[in-house]
């Protein structure tokens, strides 16, 4: 006789979330031939019985199992045969009420009809389209996400026992539960709370096409994000942020009044955005529209049917086909639920990744919950009776490393959490690149022209530093490039290093980065070495501006003129530096012009640093921000530099060398040009630069690499020595978000 076999649950396991995603098989496939639709029944004392399908090909199955606080017994029965039952005892659910929760909120227009888009076959009654339905669906989605994330973390080793895994907590309350349609009468349980918050804007304003994220002509694609933050601020309650608090709430937000406009084939009232903003810039919001909500389950009993429903979405359905990937009902459910979790990922501080949830891997959301699959309109593939071993629907290792130290994912006994991460140091040399992190090297990822080539999980090696030998990297990519069909497209090799705390550093063009690591000098036995901190931020639509500035310059008569002070400009981010020389001229460390040719004026507040005749800059301390830009640069004089603050990286010359200047890279946009890279230039301590060095392009700030030389090169007068720049640069309201 065949029995259920469990992969990830055992007697005595301790769970910290209300639902656990259990996976398993059956001991023998022979009996499956006797059942056209084999299934597993899950019984607990705290929740109605639930059934889940078994793959008739492999015997694999997945079940979303409800737990009540305290110890309990769970039964798994094959095909309703009481003789084929597996009983798991003493499984304990312990809610962690001391951990801050993820909040759920629905924003409703002030004159909202409180109806969501719905295909005709589901629109006959309000049960799938009114506000009550939206609340049920959001609650069910939240528990699916919680269970899924906990299982992802568990199977990747983020926990102290088999089933104790890092996961987020939901804000819950004692209320009438809605998670099972089989409850015979109103049943009260501790269940997820969904806040309904009213916007001050009308339905028409929310559905304005100028706010629609998918409208290529929209002029205010961030508008709905601001609307939601405004509604959160007025609602206050648990969303209120008090001055001095280090962190605000994390909120998953649904826009109820999204609507598909068939006349323009446009989904209005929808924007998928996540990040940080709102009051004091500390409210973390992941926001999404309700345009796929009709496809989401309301109850546990609807989860499997919703993820297997192959009903086609057509022009007569009256709903939007988001990104062309919602051609069937089950695919609409995947895109909607997965994209919503993607935005919550941004609210947790996660960037986009090369694969997984943060890279649209949620198109296979169903494969984490069901053991078989229906016809796919996206792929034009027939249904399958079993699932592949791998799926694109996963949390990337870098994401899990980040979440494992996030305050909302703490486990009992963990040390107090902080969002600050340790720096990753990269030092390119003649034949190698040395990479270091005090939190250890966890993952190395290579891309070719932005597409993932390979990833190496290095956690088991326990390395705080490692070396990439350039000849070995050349060999690896020369061999794989020889097999490429498209050999005419220029190849850009990218490298991303992930540390043990989830911190990441990305080199967009590895060969460019290593080739610029040294500057040779005519007639000299020594070279100029370069060390930098790179933020990993985007290069922007206008490219980048590369620069170098020396702490000395040549006068008109060939005499060496030294820098006497630095004018450091910093606002929301680090803006740049003006170097003031003894002859009254100055040079800018940063972009000299905007992308449209206007003169760059560094904004933010000003800090002055004088450099005496016998003084030198000994080191830099640099903080690179989570959202891709350098936030802070400290110039250190004197022999005693002091401790390096957590989250900052220190750049120092090698032993026997000195700093002679600085170099970097800025995003070159029209207006504020944030810093992507900042570093030091060094030579042997007893050496001096030859006069020819002052004309080497790699040691000057001229055209930023655009081949159009701007007026006022290295050493040309650009302004009054003593004039303090106006604060006319970038002004941030604290909003940082991603799609």
Describe the overall structure.
- The protein is elongated.
- The protein folds into 4 domains: 90 residues, Immunoglobulin-like (Sandwich), CATH 2.60.40; 309 residues, no CATH class; 83 residues, Immunoglobulin-like, CATH 2.60.40; 206 residues, Vitelline Membrane Outer Layer Protein I, subunit A (Aligned Prism), CATH 2.100.10.30.
- The chain contains 8 helices and 39 strands.
- Strand 17 and strand 18 form a beta hairpin.
- It has 739 residues and is α+β, with helices and mostly antiparallel strands.
- It starts with a strand and ends with a strand.
How many helices? The count is 8
Radius of gyration: 29 Å
**Beta strands, count:** 39
Percent in helix: 10-25%
Biggest sheet layout? 7 strands, mixed
Q: Which consecutive residue ranges, at least 5 long each, have pLDDT under 50? A: 706-736
Mean pLDDT: 87
Structural class: alpha+beta
Overall geometry comes to elongated
Give the distance, in angstroms, between the N- and C-terminal Cα atoms.
51 Å
InterPro entries: Jacalin-like_lectin_dom_sf (IPR036404), Metalloproteinase_M10B (IPR053002), Unchr_Zn-peptidase-like (IPR021917)
Protein name: Jacalin-type lectin domain-containing protein
Pfam family, one: Metallopep
